[in-house]
Amino acid sequence: MGDSPDSIEAMCAAQSSIAAVPRFPAGMVLGDWRLTAYIGRGGSGEVYCAEHVALGTPAAVKVLARDDDRARARFEREAKLLSRLKSASYPRFFAYGKDKGAQYLAMELLEPGDMPTGDRAVAQFMLRVCDAVAELHAQGLVHRDVKPGNILWRSPSEPVLADLGLVKEIDTQNHPAIQPPNYPTTIGGAGTPGYGAPEQMERGEATPASDIHALGVLADRCFGGRPPRVWKRIVERATSSIPAYRYQSVAEFARAVRRRHLWRYALETIFISSISLLVFWMVSNIDIRNFDSQPAIKTSTPAPPFLEEIVKPSYQYELEEVTQLDEGRGILTPIVLQGGKEYQIIGPGTLEGDIFCPTTAVLRLNNCVILNTTKRLYPVNGIQYHLENGAYLNFLNIKTLPPKLSVSDFVAPFDESCNYVRFGGPETIKELVHE
Fold it and tell me: What is the pLDDT of residue 22?
């Protein structure tokens, strides 16, 4: 892709460091909007913070800064498009008009923000951006400038695709995205180097495949150019130099994001199913007459074979009851850990029970699902959890964290990209990832 997006952005930042004098001072009124502060300048417009003169409603006001027919036509087209788009994927339209010799567009005031990091956060972010781009494609339009600088935030979890100045009409109904030569072309390389597809920047061909290329670069940028293996395959296909080799639609790109871990879950399902068959065979050969008379499992006593095959737990505490369930799930109730000791449960598998320690204890979870039914949370329940290798800790009977308490107070290491903690959440990792 030539120069990396980082180097391109650094070059643009250096060029834009030359201060531009705003056209209008603070306090100037355009239509019903009073300008309060200068934000910056883009390719063809200046952006100001503003407020409604009568209502005080905050807004961002974009003012056309170039005086030529092409720029005026694009500016008017952007205003019309923004007024037509009603979804939350784009800034809310307030007003468009001309005053004091200037064309202006008033819209929702949004905040800039940092790119997300971590597998789950990046996936949620990319799926929201995909929704915005897919909405344009469904209307026969391409964005042509999907990049971090054109993504603002309504809230920390709600990105918004902004700047529709380069949106181009295109016939998506008669020509699928994998056949860009059949599309109408634009003259010149509109877009941002490093994000725009080769055919877009070199030959002016803007198609849905071009936006898919930009989505791939955007995902790559979230991981600093070093995406994990499951993301690397997605990025490489989306950013192929040959448009026909990319995803055929934004929906297909989004599907790949949602299913990025599907192969791993398929292998886990096959493994657990195999273990379940083995468990069934072993349980069917247990002497039932003697099983009820077995004493409770005592400290340092290994777990029964059928349970060990499922979760391979390392028990150092007493269990009042151990019951084997289908599909690799065991119920252990109640579980009272002894203070000052360290325990470990190693998966794969799922355990459910009221796990409690009246003082303090360490419980290490490795590649397993623990459904803790306790209603007592730290520090009353003094367990310090250590999550490793894709562990999932779910407090079934606790809906929210108490005030002034964070997950990191009693869970370490806490990394949402590989370990999960939920309160009243789904009972399996598969449901959690697809919720």
Answer: 84
Q: Which residues contact 300 (CB under 8 A, 6 or more apart)?
A: 315, 316
Q: How many angstroms separate the CA atoms of 62 and 103, rounded?
A: 8
Place 177 in a pLDDT band, splitting at 50, 70 and 90.
Answer: very low
Q: What is the pLDDT of residue 201?
A: 83
DSSP state of 319: B
For residues 13-23, one letter each, b for 16 or more C-beta atoms within 10 angstroms of the residue's C-beta and e for the rest, the string is eeeeeeeeebb
CA angle 250, 253, 257 (to 5 degrees): 135
Top CATH class of 5-107 equals alpha beta
Q: Which two tokens stand for residue 264?
A: 């791993």
Q: Are 105 and 80 in contact (CB under 8 A)?
A: no
Burial of 143 by CB count in 10 Å (0-12 exposed, 13-18 middle, 19+ buried)? buried
Record the pTM: 0.56
- Residue 37's Cβ-count burial label (10 Å; 0-12, 13-18, 19+) is exposed
**Are 330 and 310 within 8 A, CB to CB?**
yes
Domain 119-258: which CATH number of 1.20.1290.10, 1.10.510.10, 3.40.50.2300, 2.60.40.10? 1.10.510.10
- In this structure, the dihedral spanned by the alpha carbons of residues 301, 306, 308 and 313, taken in order and rounded to 10 degrees, is -70
Residue 42 makes CB contacts below 8 A (sequence gap 6+) with: 163, 165
Q: Taking 90 as the threshold, does the pLDDT of residue 109 lie above it?
A: yes
Distance CA 165, CA 107 (A): 14
